[in-house]
């Protein structure tokens, strides 16, 4: 007897019958066909389907999860909101999900993260998002930064072991440990990930070098790397944002350089931002079409470039800010509008944010549209506004040596 259980509006999976035998009809299908069917399931249902049988568990883990991850769609954005009645600059984490053609508030995502993390968090604790994983830091005053890696979809939270050697070295040198790090995660290649912690101590600046520590979930260990970098990047500090793509972590220095940290080849290089002397701000970096993109505005024009061969900036778009601004009642400040935004990695869409709404601009037809309005009792402060893209990840994270899962 074949028992079929409905798990979605248009998806069916078999369940074991009372005798414990696999569904007879499904067992006759070849593995390739089963994989093709399973990969059409929504992410949550795909994870649930691992319980059907050992065969499905193996197929989903080894084949479906990497395949799904390679072509994962944008799930939504995290961004900070400030409740009007609370202390100024106390920003809370807000999430909007990508529901078809529009964005809708989804408080359950933030609630699920609250259940995973062992401390009360706000937006400043979320420091990076990479291919479905979120990196949080608990930086209580006077304490050593404690990192956590979370997968909201699989409801996993992993506490990263503290970097004992770095703590001791910082104490001996009288330096402060940095509280910014980034994730490096390619779920279509492996379920393992890395946490890259950056150190900008004075002695590295004097030696014209950069240093970062890398934690590997595969080994459970931190390893420090120091490499030469002869560029004036240390004096003005860094933008608190990072992008990971194909083995490289990208960051922008306030001196208007793009700095690339290759964690596989273990080298670093600095590239001047395009129109460096003319741009009004440090701009923004993101991923679209498997290329690193950069954008900033000069006067009334918003420019977009992409990086070719890790060194050459190629012009892509020039957009009139006046055209974007006209007849948009939700946008009360042009400067805010052109600063706050994100790329859609799978399309040519650009997302803008202001204190009352999120807008999407389709480059192909040059049509901006409001896709989400922020609740009347909340607003986003322009100076702190940023959109952090999130992609659902169906990969089950493995345990790490000498670590504990929350």
Automatic annotation (TrEMBL):
PANTHER family: F-BOX DOMAIN-CONTAINING PROTEIN (PTHR35546:SF114), F-BOX PROTEIN INTERACTION DOMAIN PROTEIN-RELATED (PTHR35546). The lineage of its organism: Eukaryota, Viridiplantae, Streptophyta, Embryophyta, Tracheophyta. Residues 29-69 form the F-box domain. It holds the Pfam family b-prop_At3g26010-like. InterPro entries: At3g26010-like (IPR055290), Beta-prop_At3g26010-like (IPR056592), F-box-assoc_interact_dom (IPR017451), F-box-like_dom_sf (IPR036047), F-box_dom (IPR001810). This is F-box domain-containing protein. Signal peptide: none annotated. Coiled coil: none annotated.
């Amino acid at each position: 007897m074949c028992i079929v259980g409905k798990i979605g509006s248009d998806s069916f999976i078999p369940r074991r019958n009372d005798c414990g035998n696999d569904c007879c009809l499904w067992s006759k299908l070849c593995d390739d066909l089963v994989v093709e069917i399973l990969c059409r399931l929504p992410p949550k249902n795909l994870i649930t389907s691992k319980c059907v049988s050992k065969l499905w568990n193996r197929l989903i883990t080894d084949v479906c999860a990497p395949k799904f991850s390679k072509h994962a769609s944008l799930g939504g954005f995290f961004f900070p909101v400030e409740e009007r009645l609370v202390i100024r600059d106390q920003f809370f984490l807000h999430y909007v999900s990508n529901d078809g053609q529009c964005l809708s508030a989804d408080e359950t995502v933030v609630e699920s993260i609250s259940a995973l993390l062992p401390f009360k968090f706000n937006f400043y604790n979320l420091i990076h998002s990479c291919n479905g994983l979120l990196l949080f830091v608990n930086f209580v005053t006077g304490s050593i930064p404690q990192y956590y890696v979370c997968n909201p979809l699989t409801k996993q939270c992993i506490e990263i072991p503290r970097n004992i050697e770095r703590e001791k070295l910082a104490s001996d040198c009288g330096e402060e440990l940095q509280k910014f790090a980034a994730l490096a995660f390619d779920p279509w290649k492996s379920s393992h990930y890395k946490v890259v912690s950056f150190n900008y101590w004075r002695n590295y600046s004097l030696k014209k070098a950069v240093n970062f520590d890398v934690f590997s979930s595969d080994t459970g260990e931190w390893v420090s790397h120091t490499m030469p970098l002869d560029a004036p990047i240390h004096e003005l500090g860094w933008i608190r944002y990072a992008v990971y793509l194909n083995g490289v972590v990208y960051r922008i220095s306030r001196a208007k350089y793009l700095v690339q940290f290759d964690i596989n080849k273990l080298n670093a290089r600095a590239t001047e931002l395009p129109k460096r002397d003319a741009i009004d701000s440090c701009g923004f970096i993101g991923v679209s079409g498997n290329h690193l993109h950069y954008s900033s505005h000069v006067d009334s024009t918003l420019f977009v470039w992409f990086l070719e061969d890790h060194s050459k900036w190629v012009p892509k778009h020039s957009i009139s800010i006046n055209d974007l601004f006209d007849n948009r009642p939700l946008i009360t400040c042009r400067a805010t509008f052109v600063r706050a935004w994100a790329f859609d990695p799978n399309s040519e869409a650009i997302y803008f944010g202001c204190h009352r709404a999120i807008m999407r601009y389709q480059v192909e037809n040059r049509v901006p549209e409001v896709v989400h309005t922020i609740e009347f009792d909340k607003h986003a402060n322009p100076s702190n506004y940023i959109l952090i893209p999130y992609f659902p990840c169906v990969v089950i994270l493995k345990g790490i040596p000498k670590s504990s899962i929350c």
